[in-house]
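Q: I'm a student working through a structural biology exercise. My instructor gave each of us a protein and asked us to get a predicted structure, then write a short paragraph describing it. Mine is Photolyase/cryptochrome alpha/beta domain-containing protein. I'm not confident about reading structure output yet, so if you can add a plain explanation after the tokens, that would really help. Here is the sequence I was given:
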Amino acid sequence: MPPKKRTTSSSSGSPANKRGRLDLSDPHPNAQQAEEFGIVLRDFYPPEMSNERCAAYNNGTLERPIGSLQKAYEETADTRQSIKPKNAVVHWFKTDLRLHDNRALYMAYEIARDNKIPLICLYILSPEDLTAHLTSPARVDLTLRTLGQLKRDLGELDIPLYMETQDKRKDIPSRILDLCQRWGVNNLFTNIEYEVDELRRDARLVRLCADNGIKFESVHDTCVVTPGAIHSQQGTQYAVYTPWYRTWVAFLQENPEYLEVVEEPGSNPDDARRHFGDLFDSQVPAAPNNKRLSDKEKAHLEQLYPAGEHEAFRRLEEFLEEKGKSYDDMRNIPAAKSTSVLSPYFASGSLSARTAVSMAKKVNRNRLNSNESGYASWISEVAWRDFYRHVLVQWPFICMNKCFKPEFTNLEWEYDRDQFNAWCEGKTGYPIVDAAMRQLKQDAWMHNRTRMVVSSFLSKDLLIDWRRGERYFMEHLIDGDFASNHGGWGFGSSTGVDPQPYFRIFNPSRQSERFDADGEYIRHWIPELRDIKGSAIHEPYERGAGAVAEKTGYPKPIVKHSESRDRALDRYKRASQSK
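A: Happy to help. First, here is the predicted structure for Photolyase/cryptochrome alpha/beta domain-containing protein. I'll explain a few features afterward.
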């Protein structure tokens, strides 16, 4: 058994091999802990990569996955160009579970319509992908409920949605090929996902399909602005949000077509059910055993987050009408319920970011940015989703258990199981932290302000490896989205883009006083503290309410913030100097 607490050396780098060349396969000094504490899932992935391998992606020695996909298209261009439509066209749904403003779906429909052949929709559930990507049971449940609604909506258009479970993730490309051949399909469409596994899978599928007479088209749809379309004056990808966002806004002003939404597909030909009638009988797959919720949990989450694009669109309209104008003033108050809570619908693809930004721009007098507009502030928050995907494409090693600043993987992280469990259970003795973690556990969601607070607390106050927190979030959030979750943890732990360890060590008590001044959020989620009056709610053991807190079983703080802050600053400084 590993020890309860373990730190790692702050040394950096991988040794040279006997020939004096850099061995890019040598594991990082933290690799043992990464495996012992479930950070690197060895059932699916190799050992943790070295920092030198990260540098090889940066300098182009190693090809980025987006480059592999682009190369596959370039090298099969002539073959694909010669392929003509046959019996039907297929759209492969992934994380784009909607009819409205779905670019690949509409392109597939246009080919089908113009050739007077049916459109078939496909969804493949991959239990291994769900496990490898740490997808939460809550998000799996939302996905399956969304598929049910999607099937009904497509059925009204006489479009079948064929669904199945594929046990082995490596077999998905060949299975898709088999289905296309069975249905007499020569045209396959899907929207691009920018994570490493997905880009590499699509690159293989491009070649596999081309070799078998099928034209596979993967389409940029997830981002408002396509990754790679904007860059700094030096021609490089931005690593800081603010200048990136200014460029993003300017790009959209100069290229308004990027905000044009596409229509829903029309109906299939009348004979679609005659030719593909059995596909209409396809049922929504069951959740894998390790991703199932109890009936009580399912009912609770279904009430909080009804599935499908109709609910997503209703929430968007309601937010813009009732809360959008005041969003900038209220967005940081977790008890105010002033945010849109659209993140589960963005994550599942029930709502496109393009639609959201387009509608917000319209109600904001056709402006994307304005210093006095809550709508503009909300648009800038939606834009973070684009930013983190742009970062992911440029620096793909962040999808491989590494941070944007690989040297901070060397930092002397702690691996205290008891403290980590206290953080998970909302029993750290810091009320704002505990309230947020209990909200996550019950509602599978957390306010963005408190996400920043709890990530800072885990990585700075407890100095626990941020990747353990990143994993815990993915395993519990209904809106778990890799790029945004990783980006948020990079922000909170100061290991990501624009790291500022000296300015981003949140004092949890001050955060609590500033953003939950009356303690409404804390009292809602921590019943042990509901009888405490006034500002003592923020630090009961420091402000004369310790007897009440102790009587109800609320724990004393597990660390002292001032001491933890000094310790964190010292370790970040040493890690920075070791690069």
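A: Here are two points you could use in your paragraph. The domain at 406-577 is CATH 1.10.579.10 (DNA Cyclobutane Dipyrimidine Photolyase, subunit A; domain 3). Residues 374-394 form the longest helix (21 residues). It's a good idea to check both against the output above yourself.
Q: Great, thank you!
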